[in-house]
Input
Amino acid sequence: MDQNHLRELLEQVRHGAVDVDAALARLRHMPFEDLGFAKVDHHRAIRVGVPEVVFGKGKAPEHVLAIADRLNERGGNVLITRTEARAAELLQARFPEGEYFPLSGAFRIWKDRSIHGKGKIAILCAGTSDIPVAEEAQVTAEVMGNEIVSIADIGVAGIHRLFNNRDKFVDAKVCVVVAGMEGALPSAVGGLVPCPVVAVPTSIGYGASFHGLAALLGMLNSCASNVTVVNIDNGFGGGYVAGLINRV
Amino acid sequence: MDQNHLRELLEQVRHGAVDVDAALARLRHMPFEDLGFAKVDHHRAIRVGVPEVVFGKGKAPEHVLAIADRLNERGGNVLITRTEARAAELLQARFPEGEYFPLSGAFRIWKDRSIHGKGKIAILCAGTSDIPVAEEAQVTAEVMGNEIVSIADIGVAGIHRLFNNRDKFVDAKVCVVVAGMEGALPSAVGGLVPCPVVAVPTSIGYGASFHGLAALLGMLNSCASNVTVVNIDNGFGGGYVAGLINRV
Amino acid sequence: MDQNHLRELLEQVRHGAVDVDAALARLRHMPFEDLGFAKVDHHRAIRVGVPEVVFGKGKAPEHVLAIADRLNERGGNVLITRTEARAAELLQARFPEGEYFPLSGAFRIWKDRSIHGKGKIAILCAGTSDIPVAEEAQVTAEVMGNEIVSIADIGVAGIHRLFNNRDKFVDAKVCVVVAGMEGALPSAVGGLVPCPVVAVPTSIGYGASFHGLAALLGMLNSCASNVTVVNIDNGFGGGYVAGLINRV
Amino acid sequence: MDQNHLRELLEQVRHGAVDVDAALARLRHMPFEDLGFAKVDHHRAIRVGVPEVVFGKGKAPEHVLAIADRLNERGGNVLITRTEARAAELLQARFPEGEYFPLSGAFRIWKDRSIHGKGKIAILCAGTSDIPVAEEAQVTAEVMGNEIVSIADIGVAGIHRLFNNRDKFVDAKVCVVVAGMEGALPSAVGGLVPCPVVAVPTSIGYGASFHGLAALLGMLNSCASNVTVVNIDNGFGGGYVAGLINRV
Amino acid sequence: MDQNHLRELLEQVRHGAVDVDAALARLRHMPFEDLGFAKVDHHRAIRVGVPEVVFGKGKAPEHVLAIADRLNERGGNVLITRTEARAAELLQARFPEGEYFPLSGAFRIWKDRSIHGKGKIAILCAGTSDIPVAEEAQVTAEVMGNEIVSIADIGVAGIHRLFNNRDKFVDAKVCVVVAGMEGALPSAVGGLVPCPVVAVPTSIGYGASFHGLAALLGMLNSCASNVTVVNIDNGFGGGYVAGLINRV
Amino acid sequence: MDQNHLRELLEQVRHGAVDVDAALARLRHMPFEDLGFAKVDHHRAIRVGVPEVVFGKGKAPEHVLAIADRLNERGGNVLITRTEARAAELLQARFPEGEYFPLSGAFRIWKDRSIHGKGKIAILCAGTSDIPVAEEAQVTAEVMGNEIVSIADIGVAGIHRLFNNRDKFVDAKVCVVVAGMEGALPSAVGGLVPCPVVAVPTSIGYGASFHGLAALLGMLNSCASNVTVVNIDNGFGGGYVAGLINRV
Amino acid sequence: MDQNHLRELLEQVRHGAVDVDAALARLRHMPFEDLGFAKVDHHRAIRVGVPEVVFGKGKAPEHVLAIADRLNERGGNVLITRTEARAAELLQARFPEGEYFPLSGAFRIWKDRSIHGKGKIAILCAGTSDIPVAEEAQVTAEVMGNEIVSIADIGVAGIHRLFNNRDKFVDAKVCVVVAGMEGALPSAVGGLVPCPVVAVPTSIGYGASFHGLAALLGMLNSCASNVTVVNIDNGFGGGYVAGLINRV
Amino acid sequence: MDQNHLRELLEQVRHGAVDVDAALARLRHMPFEDLGFAKVDHHRAIRVGVPEVVFGKGKAPEHVLAIADRLNERGGNVLITRTEARAAELLQARFPEGEYFPLSGAFRIWKDRSIHGKGKIAILCAGTSDIPVAEEAQVTAEVMGNEIVSIADIGVAGIHRLFNNRDKFVDAKVCVVVAGMEGALPSAVGGLVPCPVVAVPTSIGYGASFHGLAALLGMLNSCASNVTVVNIDNGFGGGYVAGLINRV
Output
């Protein structure tokens, strides 16, 4: 359509219906979307297999439902993160086929369960309190078409548990490591695997954890070179980037 | 060798030269490296194509030279980051075939220039002052066997320059985006590309940049979901993770 | 009135009703407002077209209503920001002609809709969650007699949307740019327009946004030289300064 | 030139030398600067009367000189801020007609002294230690074609000095207020003038000033609604925005 | 009583009822309070005219009441700060002669209204929102036997109001200055008076006020040399120290 | 059991039922716990006399009860810290022999009251508001088999009370010192005793206490060399480490 | 003089030489200093016995000397704080009668050694490293005409030294307490004396002292109600306020 | 001596040479040191085997030498930490039998090499850059009469090295764990050993390590319950507390 619009203008120039100066002026004001830039988003959706994800927190329940309706009609997998209680009820009533994850507040509707990732993604978390964030990462990476292996409660203070589970994640294509408190697990995992590690600090802790700041700083200063970091409690971001890496 | 050590013990058990209890006791005290764990590192080196990188800053020049000698003998590519003035002189005298990058202080010796990455890595930086950090990222990713496209000085305050250069990086497998001050470039790039973006905040700026804190926080809060972050000024980390992603 | 008070004293001096020493003494104790300083405020009100604005948050509902009554009697436009639920009800009952803006909590009574600004003010916001703060800016600038163009949801991660809307704001006399999370939009806008940009950071975000600190620091470190910054969530301040600039 | 480039293409389309599909393809890859976007900068330069300003700090002296040569050839006023000792010497030798301001390190070459501002800009600073930052603001605003009134050492602890000088700045179109330590002067000035106030915090102070953080926070929390803020020690930014406001 | 205890021991030594070694041992284990140190507190109470003040916040209502009973029996003035709703009710029922101050939560019972201070204490506050903290300072200083002059809503953005009220506080022996937001009032007052100024930052503000941090830092960096600072919202401390200074 | 597993494998090697290569392969994949590492925890439990402690906060009441059941069956002392209201009710109903400490939320079931510590542990706290944290430390150290002496409300502003109580703690093997606000008590205690001092900062305070940060920093900077620090409000950690030290 | 100026105007009004409107206009523009406000400063100088003190740091040596010359001519005591090496040499050469204090960099010239304070001021410091700041406080308070008792190295970790010296400061009219690291000394002193305590945090310490922040926060959170605080390392401010208090 | 002083007074009371009132007065003013408190320090020296340690940094070289002379004469082991270059030269010249440790700047003179500790102290450090701080800990613990096992470069990113060395430290009575960057090693060690772990954060790192803050916060939030923390870079404190624990 946009291409056509531009083509039409050029045809008019060719046939003399529009002279060069007028064409120049119109070209300068033609929006970029018409020139094809907005297609980036569409391409991404097609390649990645996940439509725009909705961040449910703070949105009115009816608003969330309306968005979910619209996304559902497009025919791709639907993911709504951090839904609040009332919105979750509405979603479950409208989409009985949907999955609701109460720990993280994620709601997911499957349309296409094909696998797009090249290998498996390992999602590890340090303590049981970190599980909601890890769940958000897992739900996200799955809906993008990835095979996940998920291992909970293997914090560095019980480092032998990490070793005991090593076979489960050492051959992953990418690891998502979720940890609060001192946030040390990504460094330990990073030293055991040859793949990229996406570290997700959580706000679990109290006192000098300063709502996740301690874990965040720890991960940014990791002595393992294969570690990168996303925002505190950003399980979605961790799962999303892992999903992208698994398709490079 | 380590495997042999373990095999020898088992052979002794088999032939009755060591009884089971004695074997049990020795097994429990056998270092894990002997059991094969340390091979992780070796495997990584082989797969990734880069031996352990040396962080030159703060090391005595003679010490740096000695390490470089040892690494050089192993036969793989050698990378020393953040060499200081005197160490750089010594390295250049000893390895005339080496490349010295004065902006970032990197020193590199090529042994194997084969390409291991699946696609190209784009390294973008916001301002000319960010170039040393971007250079460190590029030198690192190259020595791991990647093809790089590097674009400097395309900060968000001149956003048309970013658009003008879009064709150069839109098909990269991974982008490394280096920026100081407000650190906004990774968000803008992240919205234009479908691939993972590794953001590297720099300490460029003054006053309320607080030595890179402003850029770091900006990147961690990116509204583009494909952005992950490494430490302030950590060009090496940015290039290294990009190199890993490009091989997944 | 105050002028008259002073004039009266001088007349008394002239006619000998008050001698010089007594006049001296009274002059020294005459409040400065009587000497004309307070007129600064009055002058400003007349020029700017907006009486003293009331900050409603934390005030008792009856108190807010009483202040609104008094302001309403003065005959100028009335603006109350951040009214709370009960106060909003009282205001709507008393002033059915008033406008209530539930997102931002602003309440406005028009007396004079004449335009005082020289050109239009563009108010841009990065995400839909930033709209309440942008609304406060718009309500404020409008009540001061300005024409506004308002554009929402054009964050830097979808930079093409910014470009597509460029024609709408490029000729503004001043831009107010509202953004949370990484706060990058003011830099991008600042690079596209030749006019002053008033940046308003918002507390939208979580984790390392630290309640708007990330956005604030980002804006203070903007690489666009035409950007100045007001406090976090201070939509009123953003709209007010823009209104002043539009009359210089 | 760029316009010509585009015109030429359209002429070729008109005359059939290039067909529509080929034109389409070339248009899509034509950099935006060629399509006229970069003219924003040029337009700004023309309107504002100041070419791109060079930030001298951290640049090699010869590099600064080369840039100055190029800017000088363009024929507009030249401004280099924060030149360092050696660069200042080179500039003074090459441009004997230039002005060097040792306190702030600014170097300025006049080509056009015409006044573009609508009224005067007042630049006030709190203490004598803040003068270098105020000087940078003044040099910047002057080179953009503004009339300046500059008042030093009128901090709030000697508030009567502020009052005594009130006549000098009360009719300014915009005030730039520079202050370190507690950064209270912008609030006091903001209460006295009806115009916009651009506040520039400085790093003057010690201990709990935390390198200007105290002044910055003070200004962001100003109870005067007409105050906006730029980065710590950013005299250039303060002067530049004031220059823009004075032309709205 | 304690004195008597010690005296008794010495009498026993004198009369041989206790020998020296036994006396030595008992002296070494005799608590210091018995040796007169605790009298510091008693002396202070007598001199200052206020018994130990009770911080009501977080204490059980019945507990507050019980303490108030005990203090009331001692016969001096009673002050309970920051009482919570239920505790306030209990106190008002038990002590109908008491004064309750709902803004600050202070509860006061007068026994002795004599004046101990040498001059008057001025308590100034910047905005109406700061009044609760100023009230706590006033209630405290009054109960210690001081004459107070209290002036509200004279923030620096309306500096003429400060001047207009100058005669009321310029001859105070000590000023308590309460301010939130940018916390600039103590500097302005400090420049107008020759006496000590006790600055009390409040948590009034939002965004970059960081719960009073901005005001606190501003006051610590005051360019007026006669300013000292107490904790955020510590009206009691401000009034208490002012009361002590007024008796030196 | 795990030992048996390994022994069995070695027996099979010995008898030729498994050949060396197969044994090698199985050994490499045998989890470390099976090799005896997990026994570290068991050994610790036996030596220290306390089973794994449960952190009750944020756990579902039924979950807490289930864990308590399991721990109770193991036969050692049971400690659950920071139980919330409903969980405490359930625990009290199920374990009428248990002790509930409402201030700190600790719940404790005794199985073995034998003393394991070498000397007594002194637990001191600065103010009455710090008692809940001190209580958690005491409950913890007691359940590990230690004799405790506990002294409350001896803050440094009443330093004579510290002296008066000195005999009670000067011969302790280790002191736990709990303090909020300025956190100065550990330094004062550290100067009076020759033993290690474990300092526990609390979040008691307001304003510039920043939720315990002031106390934490004070303790980390203690001029007494025998002071170490645990996290803010971490009474459990303080008591636990003291219990370990008392057995060295 | 200023009074005369105003009187003259009123006389002219009385005699009809100036009409009322003209008088009104002139009155409005008459600077406040002429109306007597600036006399505040002069009065303070006379009462306090110290002329404006010069902050020597960062000033050119010749500039410092010139200021000293001017102050010296006025005839009052002269105090220059934080002189740097070269300025100190110049001052010593010009004023051989002056006293130079190398630890704090203070330089003092006595003109009038009369005592103005009502009692003695005690200046206590915690460690030997804090002595330069304490010295600055002492030099300042002395030059204002106060009797000082100075006690060094009585930090809380050796609390018996504080007790041993108690007789020396318990009867002071005001105490200045200087401490770095954990900054606990003011609380301990505040509990022992009935007078106001001015606390001066110092930047002595390392690591988590964060350049005096730990000491500053500790002092602001003092549990002793008679403590107020000045800026980090602000010995001058501590001595100055103490001097003012000692004259109330 | 002090005891004698008190005894003498009591004898005088007994014999009537001093009456009770006079004795009372003298007792109240008798310094506490005379009553035996100061002996605490002496006792500690005797028990612990180390005289007062001197912190050399910032002290004049001659001053350091003089202190060393005095300490040396007392006959115990002498330890001076953080000597600077010139002081180290003087010390080495004066005490050729002394040991100088250039990495940490410690200087030590042995008088008594007897072992006082009950078991060995393990000192572990994460990276080679942390060795100077670990060295300070070791030198300190040794001079107190402890047997040390020291293991370097076993950071969590190479966690197998930690396991391989486990036998060396698992039976220590106390561990000192030194780490910079993310500071994760104490948690990993804490999970492997049953003894107390004293964690020493170092300032090693860059960017978001914020001079050791990241490591400090990580350690304070350790999920291993046996970890306590000392100040950043405080190797002395780590070694000292470990030495005390090893004697409990």
About this structure: The mean pLDDT of chain H is 85.
